[in-house]
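Q: Could you fold this chain for me?
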Amino acid sequence: MKRSRAWVTSGLLAAATLSLATVTFAHDGGDASQIAPKDARSVTDLVIAGEGANTYQSVPNWCQIPAGRTNLGPTHGGVVVDKKGQIYFSMNSGNDAILVYGPDGKMIKGIGGKEHVGIHGLCLNEENGEEFLYGALNDHARVVKLKLDGTEVWSIGVPMESGKYKDAKQYHPTGVAVAPDGSVFVADGYGQNWVHKFDANQKYVKSFGGKGTAPGQFQTCHGISLDRRGGKNLLLVSDRENKRLQHFDLDGNFVAVIAENLRRPCCVSFYGDHVVIAELAGRVAILDGDNKLVAALGDNPNEKQRANYNVPPKDWTEGIFNAPHGVSYDHDGNIYVEDWNASGRISRFNKVGEKPQARAD
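A: Sure. Below is the predicted structure, expressed as structure tokens.
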């Protein structure tokens, strides 16, 4: 594999560089020179990264700060994109649990109440033509199903019947996935490192995994997703501190370790036969249909900024990530990345390479 490139473009692209006074940050499209928050950064330069079909171009200052805020607010959650192309990302403080943005980078609305603030892992699932959000609330020890307007449908609490907990305070779910039959899988990544399966009626079924380094065990099962590639339905678990991705079938049986030596993988998203990985240690990785690394985006050369929640906006570098925590493709293969950051940081990378082809198997 060729080494991924990342450079700041100049010349023709320099025309895209704008001063702070000409950038619109307001939700209502007002004059940014009057309302731009103090720590907002002006558009700097476009950055191109990747190789071939996996070439991406950053969109400088994509996530516009809503009017009346000095910053976006702590981003420590997940990102999903609905059928309309609207982008949802969860927040770790404030009155809105999830902010909804349009593809143009302007905020549309906030949804979910304070009781949903702090969704750590976010999943979107379509059921009989209607889309729903599923969220793992780490600090509140529960998993919720929400309508797209933020209305709660149901909640699952601590699975004490699993026999894995002496105390409910040991349970800290970080990820959630939904199977085609409606079964729900919850990863207790900050707790006891079990993945719990519930049926479509939220009844506990079984647990698998547990803490360890052997295949099938976890050291922070941070994220979990349904992997449909190749016509199969498998669970893909981001085993963060073992720095690997693992496959399980829908009965919880270990299948394979499909990628190792990653940079603390938090969660994944799929596009064709490709999978993009948010790696907490300052990088976004892309694997192809054979689970081989084919691109690395935004690789941060500053180790002090990697997995650092407190990097201030003035120290951010355009197109370089600090602590990727959430990630999602949209329907055109563009990528949205949520950095774990105290001020709040969401980035968009537009796909400029050709569309990857899905395998026929």
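A (continued): The CA atoms of residues 236 and 247 lie 5 Å apart.
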